[in-house]
Specification:
Carbamate kinase, ACT-like_dom_sf, alpha+beta
């Protein structure tokens, strides 16, 4: 048949018994007629133990030497797994990342893959060996060992599957973990969370980047970019897991497929930022140059020549971010405030592109729980809200669920008391415990996506060289297009009381009019006040504005509501838009160079959206098309 890539995480090879079970799965796949590549992580807590050993020597180890140290964990795993396969009567050979030509950039501790030379890998497969490959590691162009950072073994597995596919083989990739598949949310927090039989690449990208701990978003980027069929399944079972696949028509018939919680981020709020071209670029270019990934960018509409920009970063990057922004904020005459104890709750679904009332349903559920929203951003298929946690109310209790803990990093959610309450409320509001339409059907019912594997034949040298050339820059960001929408309008509410339920009232009023809301941005605008902006079709502006004014008058007659039909919305579309720090830098820099001011910003894993004045929409489209070399 073809090539099956199987990835086993640290908990799936934590001891001799687990290693032998992984070996048996690989052999069963081989006996089914496949060629097999097994990608393994370091055993159990090995990586943490190595980090602790380094800490015994120095509090500030160099990134290069840490990579040298951490890469040894996977080397132990691959040798033991190869021995297990041999003990069970099959031929196996183990390789490190450098041995099979996984070439990365030189960003130690979180390197990105540049290319993979599949020659040695394919020769071993062609000779009948099961290949056991170290995840998480590669080698840079200076010959130094590098590691891929969080989710590195997932990334290795899918990248190798993509490389083998481009070399001319049929391939599928199986990610073995300690849960049965991808759930509608974390089953430790919501016991009635449901395992999905299938989810689209885009939905999984958003779920992964928004806090779902089953897979890292970088691996999903590879899967989508190179169309690699993926299945997430339980290492302790032979049951079918969850397919991650191209979007099928049935997926857009319901508004949401899942909700996620992230509790390892901090919010930064830049207030009093000059509302002029180039300011956003200056801020985010500095962070991009430091390789700091920014999430939930929300720029509010400027008033009095000043704007507010809010965004989140990982807690581990907070101190670096503040250090970088300090001088810039001072020069701009702005102020920088931080909120460390926040939780991000996101709802994701392909159906929200065309189904109205999604935001209203989410906000109504949160209002009923008394959850106040400190920040709102939206993307093509997701809505994210930021909830401020009460440090005094933090709890270490995790409710029992049908699955074991997913990942250690995900345990941050155990302290997110309000975030967990919000997660449960949103999960219930979208009835995600019920079977998803199509979810009970076999994969074939979702469309023809499961691979038909073909015999492995080693390509000629020229074909191998061509495949390697196609893999150059394989983890670079993929920008697939720039879209201009001149048919949108914007409504902004100034000084909305920052209280639970107010957003729900606004979007309920709009949704009951059958009006589809697109971009949503909420930021704080002062003590106990918020600024809320959203876009609606220009044809619906008059109706939406009246409905908004009526409901806001009931909330607080002192609020000001402004409608603006003279805007254009631009979207840069692609894969890895959030995790690749240079996307916003390029986008904002190109607009700044043309003197085009940005009135609103919204980000997600698959698109970055901005609002500009309508008179300059076509010019903005042209400059972004040129900046991303799409012309």
């Amino acid at each position: 048949m073809g090539v099956v890539v199987q990835k086993f995480g640290g908990s799936s090879v934590k001891d001799a018994e687990s290693v032998m079970e992984a070996a048996r799965k690989a052999i069963r796949a081989k006996h089914a007629g496949n060629s097999v590549i097994v990608v393994v992580s370091a055993q159990g807590s090995t990586t943490d133990d190595l980090i602790a050993k380094a800490a015994e020597i120095t509090s500030e180890p160099s990134a290069r030497e840490m990579d040298m140290l951490l890469a040894t964990g996977e080397q132990i795993s691959i040798a033991l797994t190869a021995m297990a396969i041999q003990e069970l009567g099959e031929r196996a050979v183990s390789f490190t990342g450098p041995q099979v030509g996984i070439v990365t950039d030189s960003t130690h501790r979180k390197a990105r893959i540049k290319k993979i030379d599949t020659q040695r890998l394919c020769e071993a497969l062609d000779s009948g060996h099961i290949v056991v490959l170290a995840g998480f590691q590669g080698i840079d162009e200076q010959g130094d060992i590098s590691t891929l950072g969080r989710g590195g073994s997932d990334t290795t597995a899918v990248a190798v599957a993509a490389a083998v596919k481009l070399a001319g083989y049929e391939v599928e990739c199986e990610i073995y973990t300690d849960v049965d598949g991808v759930y509608t949310t974390d089953p430790r927090i919501v016991p009635d969370a449901r395992k999905m039989d299938a989810i689209s690449y885009d939905e999984m990208l958003e779920m992964a980047s928004m806090g779902a701990g089953v897979m890292h978003s970088r691996s999903i980027e590879f899967a989508k970019k190179f169309d690699v069929p993926l299945m997430v399944r339980n290492a302790k079972s032979d049951a079918v897991g969850t397919w991650i696949m191209p979007e099928a028509p049935w997926m857009s018939e319901i508004p949401a497929c899942g909700v996620a919680l992230a509790a390892d981020e901090s919010r930064l709020l830049l207030e009093g930022v000059p509302d002029r071209p180039g300011v956003s670029h200056r801020i985010f270019a500095a962070l991009a140059d430091a390789n700091i990934a920014v999430d939930m960018i929300a720029q509010s509409v400027g008033i009095g020549g000043k704007a507010t920009i809010g965004f989140t970063v990982l807690n581990t990057e907070l101190d670096r971010t503040k250090k970088i922004l300090g001088p810039i904020v001072g020069e701009l005459g702005a102020t920088l405030n931080e909120t460390g104890k926040v939780s991000k709750v996101s709802v994701v679904g392909a159906g929200m592109r065309a189904i109205s009332g999604v935001a209203e349903r989410m906000f109504q559920a949160l209002a009923a729980e008394g959850v106040n929203l400190k920040m709102i951003t939206t993307g093509d298929i997701k809505i994210s809200v930021l909830v401020e946690e009460d440090g005094a109310a933090e709890s270490a209790v995790i409710e029992p669920g049908p699955a074991e803990p997913i990942k250690k990093a995900h345990l941050e959610s155990k302290k997110a008391v309000r975030g967990r309450r919000a997660l449960r409320a949103v999960h219930a509001a979208f009835a995600l415990a019920q079977p998803r339409k199509g979810a009970g059907a076999q994969p074939a019912a979702h469309g023809e996506f499961k691979p038909r594997l073909v015999p492995l034949v080693l390509p000629a040298k020229t074909e191998r060289e061509a495949a390697i050339a196609r893999l150059a820059g394989m983890e670079d960001v993929l920008v697939s297009g720039v879209q201009l929408n001149n048919e949108q309008s914007r409504i902004t509410i100034y000084d909305l009381p920052d209280q639970p339920g107010n957003c729900s009232k606004v979007f309920n009023a709009v949704a009951t009019g059958g009006i589809l809301v697109d971009m949503i941005v909420q930021n704080q605008s002062g003590p106990a006040k918020a600024e809320l902006s959203f876009t609606v079709p220009r044809a619906d502006l008059t109706r939406a504005l009246k409905r908004t004014q009526d409901v806001v008058r009931e909330i607080d007659p002192g609020c000001r509501v402004v409608g603006d039909g003279d805007i254009s919305v631009l979207f840069v579309l692609g894969v890895g838009m959030r995790t690749h720090t240079g996307v916003a830098k390029t986008m904002f820099g190109a607009l700044a160079a043309k003197g085009i001011n940005i009135a609103m910003i919204n980000t997600s894993e698959v698109c970055v959206g901005v609002v500009v004045e309508r008179a300059r929409g076509e010019e903005a489209l042209a400059c972004l098309t040129e900046a991303f070399k799409l012309g």
